[in-house]
Structure prediction request, 169 residues.
Amino acid sequence: GITVIAYAAVTVPNTFSSGTTISSAQVNANFTALGNAMPAVKTATAGSTALTTSYSDIITLSITPVTDGYVYVQANGYACLYTVTTTKWLNIGISETSAVAPSSSNRTAYQIDGVIGGGNHCAPYSVNAVFPVTGGVLKNIYLVGNESAADGILMDNRLTALFIPSLQP
Prediction:
C-alpha cells in the first residue's frame, strides 16, 4: 500500500506584532481557524443485529462538520450465517440513505455455499466509503445490511467517520 500525507496551509485571520494590544476575540478567531482545519473522528457501535431479506439500519452515525470537506467512513465487525445447507449471502454497506442499498462501491457482499449437514459460518467484514459534506449541515451515515434467508446476524459492529476539511492552499 501507499501512504500519502498531504499538508495544506492554514490561514489564520489575525497576526500579531510585539507590543501590539490584542483582543481575546482575535485570539479565539485564530484558534477557531486552526480547529476547523484539523481532522476529527467520531465512532458508533452496536452489538448483535439480526438481518432480514430487506435492507435495514445497523448503526446510524450523525455528524455536523464545521466546514466543507469529506468524511471517510469505515465499518467493521463479524458477519454470521446460521444453519447453512444451501448457498446463502448477505450484503453489508455504508449508505447516505436509511435502510437503502448502498452503491456497489460502498458495499461488501458475502456468499457462503451450503455444506453437507449444515453449519454456522462467521467471518470478519470491513467496508469503506467517502462522502462529501457541507459545513454546518447535518449528515447521517448508515451501516446497512440484508441477507438471503433471514437467519444471519452482524456482531460487534463499529462505524467510524473521519472528517477531513477542504483546505485551500
Remarks:
- The chain has one helix and nine strands.
- Confidence is low (pLDDT under 50) at residues 1-7.
- Residues 24-36 form the longest helix (13 residues).
